[in-house]
Write a structure and sequence with these properties.
The chain has about 80 residues and is mainly α. Helices cover about 55% and strands about 0% of the residues. The longest helix has about 30 residues. It is flat, with a radius of gyration of 18 Å. The model has no long low-confidence stretch (mean pLDDT about 80). This is Myosin motor domain-containing protein. It holds the Pfam family Myosin_head. One of its GO terms (molecular function) is microfilament motor activity. One of its GO terms (cellular component) is myosin complex.
């Protein structure tokens, strides 16, 4: 299974067959956690999770919408 995934990713990123930039993002982070007593470490984890979520939303929605607009593709959401 792992070999298949790596081969699939390599084919997707192969620039000899198409132009433009490509990326595959894989992110596995600890979920947002709430405890009776949170430590500074938990504050840092939750803050980082929030910033990563903002980055994901911006990349997947705002930047994608701007690209659609540049290419005159209707965007409905």
């Amino acid at each position: 299974m792992f070999k298949w995934i790596v081969t699939r990713i390599n084919k997707s990123l192969d620039r000899s067959k198409r132009q433009g930039s490509s990326f595959i993002g894989i992110l596995d982070i600890a979920g947002f956690e709430i405890f009776q007593l949170n430590s500074f470490e938990q504050l840092c984890i939750n803050y980082t999770n929030e910033k990563l979520q903002q980055l994901f939303n911006h990349t997947m929605f705002v930047l994608e919408q701007e690209e659609y607009r540049r290419e005159n593709i209707d965007w409905a959401f």
